[in-house]
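ugh ok so i messed up the first submission bc i forgot one of the chains. this is the corrected input, ALL of the components this time, i swear. 946 residues overall. if the numbers dont match what u have on ur side tell me asap before i send this to the collaborators (the ones from the other lab, u know who)
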Amino acid sequence: MSNRTIDSVDIADAPPHAGTASAEPTTHRARTYRWPAGEEACLASLEVSVDATPSGLMRSYRYRVSLDGPGSASEKGLFAPDWRPASPQSMLYRHAHASLTFDSPAPVVPEHAHVFARESFMDETASELALDPVDLRLRHLDADEDAGAREVVRMVTERAAWGRKERTDAGSQWLGGRGFAMDGEREGEPNWSAWIVDIDVHRQTGDVAVRRVVAGYGEGSGSLPVLHGVPHTLVERAVSLALGHASNARPTHDEAAASAPMSFDIASAAGTTSLSTQGTPDALPTPDAQRAAAPAVAAIANAIFDATGVRFRQPPFDSQHLRSKLAGTEPPQPVHHGVAAARPGRIKRLLAGGGIAGVIGGMVGLACAIIPGPREIAPIAPGSLGASTWSAATLERGRQIALVGDCAVCHTAPEGQKNAGGFALETPFGTIYSTNITPDAETGIGLWSYAAFERAMRKGIARDGTHLYPAFPYTAFARMSEPDMLALYAYLMSQPAVKHTPPKTSLPFPMNLRPAVAGWNWLFHDDSEFKPDASKSAMWNRGKYLVDGAAHCGACHTPRNRLGAEKGGLAYLAGGEAEGWDAPALVGHRGPVPWTEKALFDYLRTGFSKEHGVAAGPMGPVVAGLAELPEPDVKAIAHYITSLSPKVDEAAVASAAQKQSNGADVVSVMGLERGRQTFETACAVCHAASGGVGHLGVRPLMGLNTSVAQSRPDNLLHVLHNGIDSPATAELGYMPRFGDVYDDKQMAELAAYIRARYAPDQPAWADLERVSAQVREAAH
Amino acid sequence: MSHPRPVDGPVTLRVNGHTRTVAFVASDAPLLTVLRNDFELNGPKFGCGLGQCGACTVIVDGHATRACVVPAVAATGRDIVTLEGLGTPEHPHFIQRAFIEEQAAQCGYCLNGMIMSTKVLLERNPVPGDDEIRDALRYNLCRCGTHIEIMNAVRRAARYLQQDEQ
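and heres the new structure output, hopefully the right one now
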């Protein structure tokens, strides 16, 4: 290579901390990175060296690029006299002194190579100095002049929840890691991009799975930064360029087993894109897009390092290489940045037994004394997020979470628009109206950043800092994993905005004191994420994760104490109440026939189990959601819930069901003749074992119906009065309402007969006429 | 909620092999009303309106269905057969022929349900015994008291079915 030039230039501005740190000694650090470039088998050498103080101030920065082709190795020399300046892109951070040298076939070395070298080096330095890699970068960006860059970094790290360490699953075959990288330019329009990549690396195979990418780019100055999401197609492409091979991951507790792994479809991208084309201008569509995607490769390299301690200084990061390195490496002890400390022990059990007024008073006092009022979280620019911000996989994942969580059930008013709020939730403390969770800027959550959304979901605090009532089950949602939370946010923010102001919730004193909820939270709310139990199967963990988290089963099926908090311990899923319906216990065998895993799956998936009856009332919409989920998720839920009860013998269940289906003989129902007549006229055509030629839909037999054997008649009377006009799934069929046909006396006779005939082991229900009147009243 | 609550609007039904759209149907309008008023099929009768007497019986996807308690929207995408779908006055269905020959009607109001239920019964059980016939028609109410004739008609229909098969 004869055409080499050297031109070392000093392009640095004054360092941010030059004056204060000048006394510190510096150490010299140098690393060489390589990038495939130019003709085949040709490598670009990218050498970075700095003099850094132990506190992480990089005073000088030297960078040089050379082509390292076959046969040219001998010509290579450090700072040979025939170099010329690199493009300013290789320089991003502010140092006291910086020099860039650039080997001559400049166009051959793509911009991405410079970004890779610089960002990998920053990460290595941060790791060696035990500093947060983001923090280290921010120190070398000027607070005023680089305010736009700092803002972009802030927004991306906030959205990715940087600093929250992802799960540390000791027994897992997969090592998790997270990496950060950024790029930008000051010339012309300021333009910055930042990436945070979460990956999993398999300990044995070295397979790399990209679990999540949070990437954003921003234009404009510091005063009014606008963050754009990086289009998911671009993300997928950039990731495939970096890895150059297919990768996959087994699902963990927060992933649906049936769906494709949450990594991007790298296999198909890799088929069409080879490394030799990655630096050419057509590899990425536009200069803007190139800038947006530039940090991808370094972010992945940094994430792999975070996960495994193995540093790649040359792409692609193939699993074979990784595997051989992993064989002799202990995983590093990553530095935990800003991880929340363990919660101190609380005194909730001492206080929970107190009188209601006393405890409330105490709570207010505690709240004032200990818990400072939550602050408002700054709004995001309206309309700055949309469906194109996130990958299709993320949005689909979010849609499923929304289904599991039944968001729309409570956040949609009858006849109202989806998720626009206004659903009246009757609680023992008064009526609470649900809020608008569409991305409308004025009336919905359009101004909510991810941080605000996550805080609401985990801590029950709205963006403006006010406390939400725990009718909103953030007590359960706190268990959700971070990727699920983000996917849900993505999904909700990409839905149509609906301008609708729901009625204001006004509870009577003292429940109208929202700050008192802080005390309630302190007493009753544990905001820790779900921790899988390594001794249990993946299916079990998946089931528990869904049941305790997004699906918030306990909100209805766990009894609550006098302050409206779910009881713990033995009361877990031991039966509760929902909208005037009795939510049966999910543990123990309280019905006439024990639940098998298969029966529970059928019930959850289709809304009907032959041995137990039909999902109705508030459970109807739950089943409607579950019917759309991947089947393994519903199986996991059934598996976990069944595991909470003693194991049942299938044969015993079958014989119990057989015995139960016919009910008691006629003798035991003497004196209930009028109820019998009503049953024969109105019910038997569908609900008797011998019921004529039948009817469209399922035929639940009363002897096998959970609501008939429950201790309270409420559920049966709800159905008798109101029928089922909106079955959970289309195959269930409809039931007419009888509330207008029979008065409370007739209802009482009918219910008494059904109870005596079909639940002969249970005591007769008392006060049926009164309960019937209540149910009638509630329907109006 | 993911399972859509029925809404007011147009409803398309496939009745006796013909598909037709009715421009506006209230979400809670029973199938019977739509069949009688919009499709002008008066075979199915309005009796009790509570699914108890069986006069409104039609066959939906092979199931005897009390059209007075099933919303029309619930029958979307399903195969609906009414009495008119069995035969014509000139060419009655063999079950209809059996009922005529046994003179099983007095007022005749229940006969739609009797005939439709018989059809479902014979499809399920081509050679029903007397107890099975009684059980199948148990919830189709007849106030005139022609039960003996109806039993005879069903037995005769079952014989016709046997002869056809031979």
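quick check: The longest strand of chain B covers residues 18-25. that seems consistent at least. The CA atoms of residues 67 and 150 of chain B lie 22 Å apart.
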